[in-house]
Amino acid sequence: MLLGDSAQAWNESTIHNDLSVKIEVNASTLSVDATGTLGVLAARKGLYVIDLESPYQPSRTLHHQTKWDVTVVKCNPHVPYKGVVASTSNHNTLLWNIDHSSSVNGFPGILASHQPQMATLRAHTRPVSDVAWSPSEPTILATCSADTKTHLWDIRTPQKPVQTLCAFTTSATQVEWNKLDPTTLATAHDGEVRVWDTRSCDKPTAIITAHMQKIYGLDWSPNNMHELVTCSEDKQIKFWDVTQPRVCQGCLVTGAPVWRARYTPFGDGLVTTSHRQDNIIRLWSLNHESNQIEPKLVHDFVGHRDLVKGFVWRSHEHTFQLISWSKNQELRMWRMDRAHLEACGLTTSKTLMTTEPEVRSRSEASHPVFKFDLASLKSDFVINTLPDISVSFQWNPQNILSLVDDEIEEESANVLDNTKEKEADTTTTTKTPDVGQDLKAENAIPYPFYGGARFSGPNVLVMFNSKGVNAADKMTSNGKSTQLPRSYVGTVKFSDGIVGLNGIA
């Protein structure tokens, strides 16, 4: 891709916008691929792949009929494996290639498959509750289950797991890899967290009695290799240092059970959602300067009208967007403003000045571009009720069409005199104006007195003359006239010139 094309695509990306899309899919979970361009919704009937740059287009479906709810779907976070996706199906974990038109380069076996479903991982004896891709090894996947076990898989050899971690007594409900230490992962068991070292997996290296009720989510800090966060049915969010498993490093008490608590990919922040009672996504900043971690509310993302079932991040350089999915089948895309980033400790003054597009570019990116055939206006033009006087336009930051008031008043006076003379004529015969006869004179009028302007689709401003339109709409013995009104032609030519000067497409 050329540099200019890349810059244009960046300016027009949906990552700069807040969007809401209704997708009629009974999906229970959401993920985003490593490039941030594809969203994946998982349901009983299969995976639904959404182009996040064209989210209003129909999704692509990878079919897999099952009676089991899909509890988890996770895209591989490594760009060379961006098409590889793992989803749960009762006791099993399914491996997909959502980019199945091409194989995953460099590896034989299932990764060279051109089929959408590449393999099934079978080892658990109870339903799989969570999966997690290794942040350092692109072919390593962890799965945990109600059978108390956590299996580690190399997807190049999917026949059996390469390693097993066993809690023996309680179900494993969550699994998460350490973002900074490739040999460490944590699992949740009811209200308890166990920390494992894959180099010696016979027993956990630390056990944290975190909550008195079930843990719904856990996550490792991207800034501190020993810090993790847990959230629970007990309405609390807690921070832990795994080197001091008996000491809570901070606690946030909420008004509802907390479904998810995850660190932000920028600065030092946290995003949380409730398990019930409200549909708000909350952004927090974390203060590590004192002995206790102190969360401070930065922003409430309000808009979902039903329970938020999941959220994920997409990013490009220093631009971030939160993607969320709710129970009422609504996909929302929330752009992180500069104030959000700075409140969470990310310095943006230099980076965003060079990478962030202008407001106008961001607003245009949220709408498709419509192209109109002017020839169709000859017969399909709809007459609108117009004001008695034209409306003057002023310059604004979006570069909307500017007209000079003095020229309008001067030319409008001439048009008004001509109009009164024509109204005095009692002739009943209506003659369609000749386009070529007065085209030169019409072009000299910047905006006729009996005229108007209407937005017709995003970024399209149509200007027209009411007398010209009325004349063209007059019925003849052969039916409706197909001759384009003289004033409409002149105005279109004039507007085209202004469009070119002011950059309105």
Percent strand equals 25-35%
Termini separation: 23 Å
The overall average pLDDT, rounded, is 77
Derived from helix and strand composition plus strand pairing, the structural class reads alpha+beta
CATH superfamily of the largest domain: YVTN repeat-like/Quinoprotein amine dehydrogenase
Describe what this molecule looks like in 3D.
The chain has 505 residues and is an alpha+beta fold. It folds into 2 domains: 3-365, YVTN repeat-like/Quinoprotein amine dehydrogenase (Methylamine Dehydrogenase, Chain H); 374-502, no CATH class. The protein is built from 9 helices and 32 strands. The chain starts with a helix and ends with a helix.
Summarize the structure.
Helix content is 16%, strand content 34%.
Provide the fold topology:
Elements: H1 3-11, E1 19-22, E2 29-32, E3 38-43, E4 46-51, E5 60-63, E6 73-75, E7 84-89, E8 92-97, E9 117-121, E10 128-133, E11 140-145, E12 149-154, E13 163-166, E14 174-177, E15 184-189, E16 192-197, E17 206-209, E18 215-220, E19 227-232, E20 236-241, E21 248-253, E22 258-263, E23 269-274, E24 281-287, E25 294-301, E26 308-316, E27 319-326, E28 330-335, H2 338-343, H3 351-355, H4 359-365, H5 377-380, H6 405-424, H7 439-443, E29 451-455, E30 461-465, H8 466-472, E31 475-476, E32 479-480, H9 486-502
Antiparallel strand pairs: 1-28, 2-3, 3-4, 4-5, 6-7, 7-8, 8-9, 10-11, 11-12, 12-13, 14-15, 15-16, 16-17, 18-19, 19-20, 20-21, 22-23, 23-24, 24-25, 26-27, 27-28, 29-30, 31-32
